[in-house]
Amino acid sequence: MLFMKKIVSLNLSLVLLLLCGCASTQENKDTRFLLDTVVSLTAACDSETLDGAFALCESYEKLLSRTVEGSDVYALNNSSGFVEVSDDTLEIVQKSLYYADISNGKFDITIYSVSSLWDFNSEIIPSRDEIAEALKNVDYNSIETDGNKINLNGKQIDLGGIAKGYIADRILEYFKENKVSEGIIDLGGNLVVFGDRDYTVGIKQPFSDELASTLKVRNKTVVTSGTYERYIEKDGIRYHHILDTKTGYAVDTDLTSATIIGDSSMNADALSTICILLGLDNAKELIENTDGAEAVFIDTDGKMHYTSGLSLKGDTFTLK
C-alpha cells in the first residue's frame, strides 16, 4: 500500500455538496481505485485528457509506492546507501524534512517502522516492546541528500502524510497545461477545485454523520485529517492512527479534526496532520503564520475554531 496516514473517502471528512454557477463546457467524470483509495476526477475536457490525468496518477503510484518493486520508495527502504531518485521523490522528501523541522519532529516520514506495526483493519495493537524497538528507527535527521541521491541510513519512510497532496498538485498542473478550464480533483478526500465558479464543501462532524459546517471556495485545495478516520477501540481506550513520534502511540491531542484550505495540496496535506499532532493552540498559531493557508479545527468537545482569514456566516465559511 502507498498511504498509511489516512484512508479518507468523501463520506468521512469532506463532502462536495453542490456546484455554484454553470459549467462553461461539457464535463467528463470518472472514478477509479488508485493510491489505495477512491480517486474521482471531474473536468471540462474530453475523455482522452481525463484518461491522461488518471495515467499520471498511476505513474506516481508506481514511483512512490512502498510495495512496488522498482519504485523510488521501495528502493530507498531496501537500500543501505545512497539511491538516485526522481525529481518528484526528491521534492517530496525535502518538503517532508522541512515540515519535520517546523513541527519539531512531530511530522516524521521515518515513522514507518512504527506505523507498520499498527493494523487498523484487523485491529492489531503492537506490544510496548515492539513499539520501543521500532522507535529506535524514527529519526528524520538520519536522512541525507546529495543532488538527486538520498540515503536513509537504515531508516524506512512512508510518504503517506504528504504524497497524495503532491500528486493532486501535479494533476492540477496537468489540467492547466492542457487548457482545462475547471474541474474537481478528489484523491480520497484530498480535494482540489479549480475554475471560475464556487464550490461548496461540507466538513463532517467527527464521529457523526452530520455536517459541522460548510465551506465555499474557488481555486483552492481542502484537506482534512482527523482522529476519527481510523482507530481501534479496546478496553475503553481509542487508539487512532495519527501517531506520536516520541511514544509510538496515538498522539494525545485536543483536536479531532483539522481542515486546511490553501493553494498547495501538498502543503495542506502535511499541515492537516501536523495540526492534529500540535494541538489547537499551537496549530492555530502555525496556520496564522503560514502564507496561503487557513484552517477550521474541531476540538474534542465538538467546538469549532478557525483562523483569521475565514469568515463564518450561518454555517458557511468563506475566505476573507
One letter per element, helices H and strands E, the order comes to EEEHHEHHHEEHEEEEEEEEHHEEEE
What fold name stands as the CATH topology? Answer: T-fold
The name of the CATH superfamily reads ApbE-like domains
What gap, in angstroms, lies between the N and C termini?
39 Å
Largest sheet: 8 strands, antiparallel
CATH architecture: Roll
Report the principal-axis shape: globular
Number of contiguous helices: 8
User: In percent, how much strand structure appears in the residues?
Assistant: 25-35%
- Runs with pLDDT <50, length 5+? 1-12, 18-22
The helicity comes to 25-40%
Tell me the name of the CATH class: Alpha Beta
How many domains make up the coordinates?
Answer: 1
